[in-house]
């Protein structure tokens, strides 16, 4: 049954709703695992979608997110502001505030935000801002404006999350390497996994991480990057094999700077909606040892989002 969009909204044509009744993962997540990339959408009647949005999703509430967290075996979430809410962070903030300390947030802000408003976001659990360069999702924001925001949030100890497509990395390189904070790349900079892993495009991404120890990467979203599948559906235990070498390379070379997230509720997928339980079963393919899994799922996200509670803090 189709999921609703409440309020005065109509879902984008062809919108795929998130998966109902995901499998229980076979892979047992380590204790304290963090889903470090997920979103909430609305509900539209309570938290309206932004006028400047490029898509209108089905609602995906904090209650549904936290039910999924518990079902999959995660302990915590990092809720990333999605572009359908623009710079109106209320839905994400509400999710953080009602999580009992189990969620942190990544916000979208404009240069007009006041210091008091930034502090309020911090108090709610926000620890980063997201700069989005994916052209189908956002209008262009001048780089001097973003740099000004980065310099302000650096003082709060926050980081910058960047979302871009692999072909755009050369053009964005100088801006990214000028950022004064920890920089977290969404979904490995969206490599084209039909190209060779040792080709120039992915080599540039690895060089970006190698030469800049402040750069981290989420090794998430195989369902978005995969060309040949197989899809995480119908019990598939070896999903998205074409993405595995890319993600595994990043995990093995930079074990202390990687994060993983479900990306629930998977905005803008066109082909299929994955079973989130089977997505969790993808993790041991890219982080094959208990040590790598512990860093990817617990130690790294705790260091970035809950430093006071991290092991050795
Ligand atoms: O969920 C993601 O990471 C990816 C998105 C959506 C998004 O980022 C947003 O709307 O802010 C995408 O590629 O459409």
From TrEMBL:
UniProt entry keywords in alphabetical sequence: Aromatic hydrocarbons catabolism, Hydrolase, Plasmid
Alphabetized SUPFAM superfamilies for the sequence: Metallo-dependent hydrolases
Recorded GO MF terms: 2-pyrone-4,6-dicarboxylate lactonase activity
Top EC class, one word: hydrolase
InterPro entries: Amidohydro-rel (IPR006680), Aro_Compnd_Degr_Hydrolases (IPR052358), GLI/LigI (IPR047874), Metal_Hydrolase (IPR032466)
Enzyme Commission number(s): 3.1.1.57
GO BP, one annotated term: 3,4-dihydroxybenzoate catabolic process
Family to which this protein belongs: Belongs to the metallo-dependent hydrolases superfamily. PDC hydrolase family.
Stored PANTHER family: BARREL METAL-DEPENDENT HYDROLASE, PUTATIVE (AFU_ORTHOLOGUE AFUA_1G16240)-RELATED
Protein name: 2-pyrone-4,6-dicarboxylate lactonase
Species: Sphaerotilus sulfidivorans
């Amino acid at each position: 049954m189709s999921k609703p969009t409440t309020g005065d909204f109509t879902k984008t044509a062809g919108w795929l709703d998130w998966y109902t009744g995901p499998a229980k993962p076979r892979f047992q997540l380590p204790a304290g695992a963090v889903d470090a990339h997920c979103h909430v959408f609305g509900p539209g009647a309570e938290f309206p979608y932004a006028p400047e949005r490029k898509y209108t999703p089905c609602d995906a509430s904090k209650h549904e997110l936290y039910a999924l967290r518990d079902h999959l075996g995660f302990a915590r979430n990092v809720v990333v502001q999605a572009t359908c809410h623009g710079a109106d962070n209320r839905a994400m903030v509400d999710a953080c505030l009602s999580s009992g300390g189990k969620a942190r947030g990544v916000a979208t802000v404009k240069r007009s935000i006041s210091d008091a408003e930034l502090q309020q976001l911090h108090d709610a659990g926000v620890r980063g801002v997201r700069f989005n360069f994916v052209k189908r999702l956002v209008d262009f924001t001048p780089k001097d404006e973003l740099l000004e925001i980065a310099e302000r949030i650096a003082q709060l100890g926050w980081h910058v999350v960047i979302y871009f497509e692999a072909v755009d990395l050369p053009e964005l390189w100088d801006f990214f390497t000028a950022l004064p904070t920890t920089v977290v790349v969404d979904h490995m900079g969206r490599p084209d996994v039909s190209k060779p892993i040792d080709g120039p495009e992915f080599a540039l991404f690895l060089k970006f991480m190698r030469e800049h120890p402040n750069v981290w990467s989420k090794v998430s979203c195989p369902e978005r990057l995969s060309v040949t599948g197989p899809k995480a559906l119908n019990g598939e235990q070896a999903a998205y094999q074409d993405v595995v070498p890319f993600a595994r390379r990043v995990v093995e070379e930079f074990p202390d700077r990687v994060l993983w997230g479900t990306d629930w509720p998977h905005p803008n997928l066109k082909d299929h909606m994955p079973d989130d339980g089977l997505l969790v079963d993808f993790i041991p393919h890219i982080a094959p040892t208990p040590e790598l899994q512990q860093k990817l799922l617990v130690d790294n996200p705790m260091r970035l989002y809950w430093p006071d509670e991290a092991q050795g803090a």
